[in-house]
Amino acid sequence: MIRKFAIFLAVVGGSLLLWMVFGIWTGIYAVYSIPPMTADHPDGATFLISRDPGEPMFYSPDTPPPKQKEPSGKEKRGIGFGAAPKARRPVADRIILELPYIEWAYEKSLDALEPD
């Protein structure tokens, strides 16, 4: 009986891990890293959060927010029928999983700051 339960837990745990990897790969989730030495998280933290449109896959408080695309040419004139831009939800409202600080994820978020 214990062996069947352990197998069941392994299958469920593996399925959850595969879903998280799939969610990050497809853009459902993002990885948000807070470096150590902040007031709220003195040891740092890494969060798996639901991703809003236009957000990078890896980011942190030190990463600048993505710039809004300025319409040019014909796009400036007239009334558009596209979706209205939505306000960003706070990170605290989108946390799915809290992990310990992962330095690799934080460094990956800083890659956007380096010029190409």
What does this structure look like?
The protein is built from 2 helices and 4 strands; from the N terminus they run H-E-E-E-E-H. It is an alpha+beta fold and 116 residues long. It has one domain (2-65, 90-113). It has a 4-stranded mixed β-sheet with strand order 3-1-2-4. The longest helix is centred in the first third of the chain and has 25 residues, at 2-26.
Short description:
With 116 residues, this protein is an alpha+beta fold. It has helices at residues 2-26, 103-110, and strands at 29-34, 45-50, 58-59, 95-99.
Keywords:
116 residues, alpha+beta, four-stranded mixed β-sheet, 2 helices, 4 strands, 16% strand
Structural class: alpha+beta
Helix content: 25-40%
How many structural units, i.e. domains?
A: 1
Mean pLDDT across all residues, rounded? 82
**End-to-end Cα distance:** 57 Å
Largest β-sheet summary: 4 strands, mixed
Strand order of the largest sheet: 3-1-2-4
**Count of beta strands:** 4
Work out the radius of gyration: 19 Å
**Form type:** extended
Number of helices: 2
Low-pLDDT stretches are none
Please write the string of helix (H) and strand (E) elements.
HEEEEH
Strand content: 15-25%
Assembly type of the shown chains?
single chain
